[in-house]
Design goal:
This protein is α/β, with parallel strands linked by helices and 373 residues long. The radius of gyration is 22 Å and the shape is elongated. A hairpin with a 2-residue loop joins strand 3 and strand 4. About 7% of the residues have low confidence. The protein contains 12 helices and 12 strands. The structure holds S-adenosylmethionine. The site of S-adenosylmethionine has 22 residues, from helix 8.
């Protein structure tokens, strides 16, 4: 079935938006936004608001004229018909909505490209320009082709759009139920690695996450692993009581940030959602990591998402000897502005001490572990 992708590339996460159009496109937009708590929908605007009993998918419907009375960041026009799209833009200009706040996405090309095959086939979308790199395979401890393909495919929107339509990806997002603060592009990359790029050396291994908060990204990975690699466990390590002591010379975060996580609530949620391959491990990594990792079958993916210098160093050093050949180490926040401690940890240890190379810089830093290198 034809699916209308929300203009994720033009509307940043957490924006306050009005969806203009309460039809099929508006419905697709609202569902995608709500599934991942992407941004805040102030209301849905539609000329037929008076015929619609005031609500659309549980969201308030109002007259488009009311857009002028609210504090919005963007108005997303939700239509496929050019004639309507033009009329809607004219309407918005008439009530004073600035041009740069009006987001219009044309869906015609996507319909012809994707409607025949809604499931993702990543091989069919290799970017030819980068294909010569495939001949190199692994070089300097990274696979340049795969890293480039994922990074470019997510940034330019082609792979991104395909993944957002992939039924497995959408089920994993739904299982996560808005519990994660990890960005959508980073989740897409984790999906691509897990579904397409784990190599045979990863068989029979586990995933470890350092920094799980409400276990959103851990649940996302657990859902995918349960469908793709039965027997794979996800160990989610966190104090579940907030950030440990931070180093204020480099870390913007403070002790007790993220203190609203609640281990009991997490365990209850996992039970309700039927997620049985996720093991939350409570306590500071300094106390829990080595004993947890000693019980793993080897680690194919380490998701290091703990924001601050000491914790990132501790996580990496603990997991490194347990990585399987070809395994992935993702530093979620080393390229995030508020996590300079995480950046410095990567620079100090992986770049300066170990002289390693990065397989991928966008949407997060990805390193590989080959033969314990
Ligand atoms: C950015 S949050 C993790 C986000 C999560 N992955 C998600 O899906 O939303 C960072 C977490 O790291 C945890 N953390 C940081 N340093 C830690 C340490 N040394 N031991 C245990 N937990 C730590 C904090 O408690 C916090 O919950």
């Amino acid at each position: 079935m034809f699916f209308h992708l929300f203009p994720f590339n033009n509307i940043p996460t957490s924006s306050r938006i009005v969806i203009y159009g309460a039809g099929r496109v508006g419905e697709d937009y609202c569902r995608q936004i709500n599934a991942i708590n992407y941004c805040s929908i102030l209301f849905v605007a539609d000329m037929r608001h008076s015929e619609m009993s005031g609500r659309f998918l549980g969201i308030e419907v109002r007259s488009p004229d009311e857009i002028a009375n609210v504090d919005y960041d963007y108005v997303a026009i939700a239509s496929v018909r050019e004639k309507y799209m033009e009329e809607m833009q004219e309407n918005l200009s008439r009530i004073g909505v600035p041009k740069e706040k009006i987001i219009v996405r044309k869906h015609v090309k996507e319909a012809s490209l994707f409607s025949a095959s809604p499931a993702l086939d990543v091989d069919a979308h290799y970017i030819d320009e980068y294909r010569p790199m495939i001949l190199e395979g692994v070089r300097d401890g990274i696979n340049p082709f795969q890293g480039t393909q994922r990074a470019v495919g997510i940034a330019d929107g082609i792979l991104r759009g395909l993944v957002l339509r992939d039924p497995l990806f959408r089920q994993a997002l739904a299982a996560m139920n808005g519990r994660s603060i990890v960005t959508i592009d980073r989740l897409i990359n984790i999906f691509l690695i897990l579904k397409f790029h784990l190599n045979s050396g990863c068989a029979g291994s586990d995933i470890v996450e350092f920094g799980s908060y409400m276990c959103g990204s851990a649940i996302f990975m657990a859902y995918l692993a349960s469908r793709l690699y039965p027997g794979m466990n996800i160990y989610a390590l966190d104090t579940f009581e907030g950030m440990v002591l931070t180093d204020k010379r480099i870390d913007a975060h403070n002790e007790k940030d993220f203190a609203d996580a609640d281990m009991e609530e997490i365990v209850e949620y996992l039970g309700e959602a039927g997620i049985t391959n996720l093991i939350p491990v409570k306590g500071p990594f300094e106390q829990t990591a080595s004993v947890t990792l000693a019980g793993c079958k080897g680690v194919c993916l380490a998701h290091i998402d703990c924001d601050i210098y000491d914790s990132v160093v501790c996580s990496y050093q603990a997991v490194k000897p347990h990585m399987v050949d070809g395994g992935y180490i993702i530093f979620d926040d080393a390229t995030t502005g508020t996590c300079l401690g995480a950046t410095k940890a990567v620079e100090d240890i992986l770049y300066h001490q170990e002289r390693k190379h990065t397989e991928q810089m966008y949407p997060h830093m990805v390193f590989r572990s080959f033969d314990r290198s």
